[in-house]
Amino acid sequence: MSEGSLEAPERHPIPWQDPDFYDEAKLDEELRRVFDICHGCRRCFNLCDSFPRLFDLIDESESGELDSVNSADFKPVVDACTLCDMCFMTKCPYVPPHEFNLDFPHLMLRYRAVELKKGEVPFAAKQLTKTDRNGQLASKVAGLANWASKCGNSLTRPAMEATLGVHRQAKLPEFTSTPFTEQTDVPSVNTAAPAHGRKAVLYATCFANYNNPDIGNAARAILAKNGVETEVVYPRCCGMPQLEQGDIAAVAESAKATAQDLKPWIEKGYDVIALVPSCALMLKFEWPLVVPDDDDVKILSGATFDITEYIVSIAKDEGLADGLEALDGGVTVHISCHSRAQNMGQKAAEMLRLIPDVKLDVIERCSGHGGSWGVMKDNFEVGLKVGKPVARKAGDAGAKYVLSECPLARDHIVQGIEMLDKPTDGIEHVTHPVEVFARAYGL
Predict the structure, then answer these.
(1) Residues 140 and 253 in one domain
(2) What is the DSSP string of 241-254?
(3) Are 86 and 214 within one domain?
(4) 150 within some domain
(5) Residue 94 lies in a domain
(6) Do residues 214 and 306 share a domain?
(7) Residue 6 scores a pLDDT above 80
(8) Per residue in 144-172, is it b (16+ CB within 10 Å) or e — as a string?
(9) Do residues 68 and 62 make contact, with C-beta atoms less than 8 angstroms apart?
């Protein structure tokens, strides 16, 4: 048996349709096997709060070993996992093809799937995952929804905390009254650009569609400037919120249906671009593990790009259109965990370095947000603690633009800067790297 592995990590399909997947005794056996290995290794101690909780749990037990830990005490370890995949991708030496065959995030997913099957996922948590329904309703009353969700609203935020479990101080995304799929301004395609001839559909994602269509508009303008013909599609959410709650069946349904909806575009030669990295990760990697026998999902996986990845590919393969100008002010960019988990490199940083004379600071560390996880009452303060080094570094940089490939993580970082009593007045209200890249183009 080898110690560690020098081979590229391999992920196995998730056997969520196997009855053994939900067998609690077998789940507990696997939890104990994996936790014992993690306890002896501890390489992941600084990634998130799951591992400190696990190590403290074992260290403080009667024997100082896993044998004296009650299985009921595993839940806080599971609850701290954000499914960011960083332990699997960057830290763990025992992931497959190593004989130990560890996949910590998917083991946490299995635990949550069992909880869901037993009816232990709270009603409010399930409602928060319904991003399409929530977005459609909120966009119709965007002004009221944004007023109600605003930090400092002493009338609504305590009520949201009591009923939904959302921390009253957590910054929540605003809603737009005009979703990206309903916006009609289509930029003219630059037929003289070196990349003219490329075609792409923008998978809008629930966030860009209902919360921040500026991301989609910026991406579409950049691509048009570079000769790329684009269409906007958004059949449904990618299912990441449901995955976080263990609802793998809902993810499978979304994967199959969306792959069928996008198949005609791929057959016509269109690339598929996801505007938010968590969604790109789902389409590229998680969906093929949830429904490994679906050919349409496999084809979609191979045709999908993250938006920053796609722009960098244009720069490398054909060359960008002229017109990029220097920015007024520096840029700090956070490389999100779900971008890193795509194993594509720091594409946001690569893209931003194409801007002339850019002053760029790059942060590659967990922001502590983790999707809806970071806004919950039980997690918000933990998330701020985990993300404090990122907030401190971003605050010290003093850049005009503080960005993240994950716009939710960006807002969490800025909130962390505020809580460190560092100034944020000079930070522009721009969240995603493509928005700044569009500004450099004058778009």
Answers:
(1) no
(2) HHHHTT-HHHHHHH
(3) no
(4) yes
(5) yes
(6) yes
(7) no
(8) ebbebbeeeeeeebeebbeebbbbbbbbb
(9) yes
Contact 212, 431 (CB under 8 A): yes
Same domain for 302 and 244:
yes
CATH number of the domain that residue 288 is part of: 3.40.50
How many angstroms separate the CA atoms of 189 and 34, rounded? 52
Cβ-based neighbours of 9, under 8 Å, separated by 6 or more? 88, 89, 95, 96
State which of 316, 340, 371 marks the end of a domain. 316
Contact by Cβ (8 Å): 292, 397 = no
Count up the domains in the chain and report the number.
4
User: Which tens digits make up the pLDDT trace of 177-208?
Assistant: 999 999 988 999 999 999 999 999 999 999 99
**Does 3 score more than 80 pLDDT?**
no
Place of tokens 């995030």: 105
pLDDT tens digit string along 391-414? Answer: 999 999 999 999 999 988 999 999
Query: What global pTM score does this model have?
Result: 0.94
110 with 128, same domain: the answer is: no
Q: What mean pLDDT is predicted for residues 250-274?
A: 97
Indicate the residue among 316, 346, 378 that finishes a domain. 316
CA 99 to chain centre: 29
Are the CB atoms for 395 and 422 separated by under 8 Å?
A: yes
Please check whether residues 221 and 300 belong to one and the same domain. Answer: yes
Percent of the chain residues past pLDDT 90, beyond the cut:
85
> Do 390 and 288 share a structural domain?
no
* Residues contacting residue 191 through CB under 8 Å, at least 6 positions apart: 227
* The pLDDT value given to residue 423: 87
DSSP E strands, 21-164: none
Cis (ω within 30 of 0) for the bond into 389? Answer: no
- Of 242, 314, 243, the C-alpha closest to 273 is 314
Q: What is the pLDDT of residue 104?
A: 96
**Would you say the C-alpha torsion 256, 261, 263, 266 has a positive or negative sign?**
negative
Cα(21)–Cα(44) distance, integer angstroms: 25
The average pLDDT across 74-97 equals 91
Give me the amino acid identity at 196. Answer: H
Dump pLDDT digits (tens) for 18-44: 999 999 999 999 999 999 999 999 998
Band (pLDDT 50/70/90 cuts) for residue 7 is confident
Containing domain of residue 432, as a range? 324-440
